[in-house]
Design goal:
The complex is a heterodimer. Chain A is an alpha/beta fold. Chain A has 3 domains: 167 residues, Immunoglobulin-like (Sandwich), CATH 2.60.40; 232 residues, Rossmann fold (3-Layer(aba) Sandwich); 32 residues, no CATH class. In chain A, the strands form 6 sheets. In chain A, strands 18-17-14-19-20-21 form a 6-stranded mixed beta sheet, sandwiched between helices. Chain A has a 5-stranded antiparallel beta sheet with strand order 1-10-9-5-6. The longest helix of chain A has 26 residues. Chain B is α/β, with parallel strands linked by helices. Chain B folds into 2 domains: 220 residues, Rossmann fold, CATH 3.40.50; 95 residues, no CATH class. Chain B is 45% helix and 16% strand. In chain B, helix 4 links the parallel strand 2 and strand 3. In chain B, helix 11 packs parallel to helix 14, helix 12 packs across helix 13 and helix 13 runs antiparallel to helix 14. Chain B starts with a helix and ends with a helix. The chains are: A alpha/beta, B alpha/beta. The interface between A and B is large, with 62 and 49 residues.
């Protein structure tokens, strides 16, 4: 009985029709002729209601269905969910599906409407884009069925609750990895850097193309093939690439609902993967008011998995970042000259100046790249028209904010610190660019 | 659930306070003349009934809420009858039954400011409004209890001394304007010799009419100065016989006229109403049911940049240092030119203007204006708000913001 009560719902159509009947009865007061007819119609309506309920509840197990999705989701990317539904109702029914999504999505209206003939199987698929790492708990599938009459709605709850772990974006990782190997990165705005440094590790002889260093022409091979051939050298290998992630207050700011920290974590994963693929050693350091975790750089086969798990686990209280402790740790733990990709953010020149000393000291030993974020939120403000004097002031301040970011970059560059100023969305691409550029220039 | 508990407690406390307040606050007096034997309000007849008990050897008066005719045909025991009301209306059957009561030797007393037309026509008398009060203008009945307008009433019975009872205007609205001396005997009169109590002559029983129903209410019975009137009136009933107070004829009391009753009286409206109630119940029951699990509200992180910019903007606006803002904006513009068009901005000379025109594709006049403003800003100390707005316009033109 309790199960019946929990599954029994009434449609809006029912309320609409009873509303009409109430109206008809009121009219029947003025035109008594209508009273009899209305009463007959009303009884017919009640009968239809009962019939509808019987049709829906005649079948014991009316629907089967399942929610299909990957065990791990990739943060910040679209992950596909597939819902397969099969009807055992003897006739065509209209179905409304409410999927109980994990609380993190804050979505209470994941509703799909479709109709199913008897025995028909349909698949609903839709994307979900998580913006936070961690455990996500899916609930049941609530499937509401109505017949053609559409007065009663029967709910069937399908599937069961299950958890999905949202990991740093491994989808992006694979995407850029493949592109890096197949040299298609230019399609995504990844620049090809003319080789300036000269590494002596020989790789292969290849045809000359415009832009190659003509000092590297291999004359013997040219003579053999009667085409211009050049020697190609390999990039330096086994260099250390550390992704240092600031988990402090400044990284809490969300863009497109995802925090800067998660953008940084996604980018670290991508860059670590590419570094490993290129034969370098990748490692991770995270810090806020103190250094929280260090994953030493290595090029072992399992390193990528370790990095993934390491990044997945990262939690933060968004405390104020302490750069002196970061410096101390780097000094002690990272003894080999490394590429340090520091993901952080400065909103003003003065906040940078407080940390500049520490950054400069890090730079002495390592190749330091500071990755800071453009504030894309103010773009719209800057590109709007200031109608009155107050709006002009607001716009001026917004411009000032953007201008200050550029000053920060200048200041860092003035102290020999490489800088990437990027919109959060283009973080991965710009970081890869910088890495490839530095690699090519042989600066590490 | 934890959060809900807090609200529940709050709700209970508020409810408790409200109930306390309701008990605390002095009840407003109800001045409606109900003449009901249970009402202790001023114009109920609770005290009168107490008085009756005393007068009739502790026997309580009967109560009836149906017509005399109905009682008679349904074999209810015949007794003396007392009817009190602002207005007493009788049907023909009631009237006949009433007369038969009197014929058989019972006493019937009818006290009302206005009596049924049937009664006045066939028994040959007429009621009228006290002319002295005709001009009085009151909105509430209690206003008529005080003031100068008063009526002095005294009994006129042979062999009995009578006091003078003074009734205020509200209680003595009408009197018997005309009556046939052959049929009627005036038992009490007011100061103008207008009869207020009449008795039918030459009958087996007694038929006594009075135009002062208020005199029987708690208000006047409790007042020592006027309680004698009701007492004397009640003494007209034989002491050892049963008395019935018939409350059927209290117009406006027996059947409350509510809108719901109107609906219930007509079948289609009754259907409509019941259907509406049932549908509302169904709606509440079914629409309140959970369709999916509870998803607690989690506030997402908020990007506060815009808020920050707005606050800062307002702060600068308060200061209204226009030239300072203009310098900031020119600095941003120069940075824009440097990064977008790869031009040096130390010297804003003719070469700079030509190059910028060539590279940006904007009108030369636009750029020339902007450059001249930029130079001006560098030198000047002050700027008006009009000039700042003009600069905004020129910059928009350069950035091509529409």
């Amino acid at each position: 009985m309790k199960r019946f009560w929990k599954s029994f719902f009434i449609t809006n159509r029912f309320f609409l029709i009873t509303g009409i009947f109430i109206f008809l009865f009121l009219v029947a007061y003025f035109f008594p002729v209508l009273f009899g007819i209305t009463r007959v119609l009303f009884l017919a309506f009640v009968a239809a209601f009962l019939v509808d309920a019987i049709i829906l509840y005649r079948v014991r197990k009316p629907l089967t269905g399942i929610r299909d999705c990957a065990e791990k989701f990739s943060n910040g990317d679209d992950n596909e969910i597939r819902i397969t539904l099969e009807s055992s109702y003897p006739q065509r029914v209209f179905i409304k599906v409410i999927d109980e999504l994990p609380v993190q999505f804050q979505k209470r209206d994941q509703v799909f409407e479709l109709d199913l003939a008897s025995g028909e199987v349909k698949v609903i698929s839709y994307p979900l884009k998580p913006v936070k790492r961690g455990e996500y708990l899916f609930g049941l599938l609530n499937v509401f069925a109505t017949t053609q009459l559409g007065l009663v709605r029967r709910r069937t709850q399908l599937g069961d609750e299950h958890a999905v772990a949202v990991y740093p974006s491994f989808i992006q990782m694979r995407k850029y990895e493949l592109l890096a190997i197949s040299n298609q990165l230019t399609d995504h705005g990844i620049k090809k850097i003319r080789r300036i440094g000269n590494n002596m590790e020989f790789e292969q002889i290849k045809n000359y193309v415009i832009g190659d260093d003509y000092r590297k022409v291999n004359w013997k091979a040219t003579a053999r093939k009667s085409e211009l051939m050049v020697n190609q050298y390999q990039d330096e290998r086994s260099q250390q690439v550390y992704s240092v992630i600031d988990k402090g207050r400044m990284m809490q700011m969300p863009f497109d609902k995802m925090s800067l920290l998660d953008y940084a974590i996604n980018a670290s994963l991508v860059i670590s993967n590419i570094a490993l693929k290129k034969g370098d050693k990748a490692g991770i350091i995270t810090f806020q008011q103190k250094v929280n975790s260090i994953l030493p750089a290595s090029s072992r086969n399992i390193q990528l998995n370790l990095i993934l798990e390491h990044l997945y686990k990262q939690k933060t209280a968004y405390k104020e970042a302490d750069y002196s402790r970061l410096y101390a740790t780097l000094k002690r733990k990272v003894t080999q000259r490394s590429l340090i990709l520091l993901y952080t953010n400065f909103e003003s020149l003065s906040s940078l100046k407080r940390q500049l000393g520490h950054l400069r000291r890090i730079r002495k030993q390592h190749l330091l790249v500071c990755i800071i974020f453009e504030n894309t939120e103010v773009d719209q403000l800057i590109n709007s028209k200031g109608e009155d004097i107050e709006e002009v002031y607001t716009k001026g301040i917004a411009e000032q904010l953007v201008y200050e970011k550029k000053l920060i970059v200048k200041e860092l560059q003035a102290h020999g610190i490489h800088t990437v100023l990027t919109a959060p969305k283009e973080l991965s691409v710009n970081t890869i660019n910088k890495y490839l550029e530095l690699k090519a220039r042989g600066l590490i | 659930m934890k959060g809900d508990k807090k609200y529940l407690i709050g709700l209970i406390v508020i409810l408790g306070l409200y109930i306390f307040y309701e008990f605390q606050k002095p009840k407003e007096l109800d001045w409606t003349p109900t003449y009901h034997f249970k009402d202790k309000i001023p114009f109920g007849t609770y005290v009168t009934h107490d008085l009756m008990e005393d007068m009739f050897d502790g026997r309580e008066a009967n109560h009836s809420f149906s017509t005399i005719y109905y009682n008679e045909t349904n074999g209810v025991e015949r007794t003396n009858q007392l009817m009190i009301g602002n207005q007493i209306l009788l049907s023909e059957l009631d009237f006949d039954a009433l007369l038969s009561f009197v014929e058989e030797g019972y006493t019937v007393m009818m006290v009302a400011s206005q009596l049924s037309r049937r009664l006045t026509d066939s028994l040959d008398f007429e009621m009228g409004i006290n002319e002295a009060f005709a001009t009085a203008n009151i909105s509430e009945i209690q206003d008529g209890l005080v003031g100068e307008l008063k009526s002095k009433v005294h009994f006129n019975i042979e062999g009995r001394e009578s006091e003078v009872y003074t009734f205020p205007f509200a209680a003595s609205l009408s009197y018997f304007k005309e009556y046939n001396d052959d049929n009627w005997e005036a038992l009490a009169v007011n100061e103008d010799d207008g009869a207020v109590v009449l008795k039918l002559k030459d009958t087996n029983g007694q038929l006594i009419l009075s135009s002062l129903p208020m005199a029987f209410t708690n208000y006047f019975v409790l007042d020592e100065k006027t309680s004698g009137f009701a007492e004397t009136m009640l003494s007209f009933f034989p002491k050892d016989e049963l008395l019935t107070h018939n409350e059927f004829y209290h117009i406006g009391r027996v059947e409350p006229t509510s809108k719901v009753r109107f609906f219930l009286r007509h079948a289609p409206l009754k259907w409509a109403m019941y259907l509406l109630i049932v549908v509302i119940l169904i709606f509440m029951l079914f629409e309140a049911k959970r369709r999916q699990r509870v998803i607690p509200v989690v506030k997402p992180l908020k990007n506060t940049t815009l808020e920050f910019v707005n606050v800062l903007g307002r702060l600068y606006y308060r200061q209204s240092d226009h030239i300072k803002l203009a310098r900031k904006r020119i600095a941003y513009w120069k940075e824009f030119v440097r990064s977008h068009y790869n031009l040096r901005t130390e010297k804003l000379d003719q070469y700079f203007i030509d190059e910028l025109v060539r590279k940006s594709g904007r009108e030369e006049a636009t750029i020339r204006n902007l450059v001249s403003v930029a130079l001006q800003i560098e030198e000047e100390r002050e700027m008006s708000s009009g000039e700042l707005l003009l600069l905004e316009k020129q910059l928009n033109e350069f950035y091509d913001i529409k």
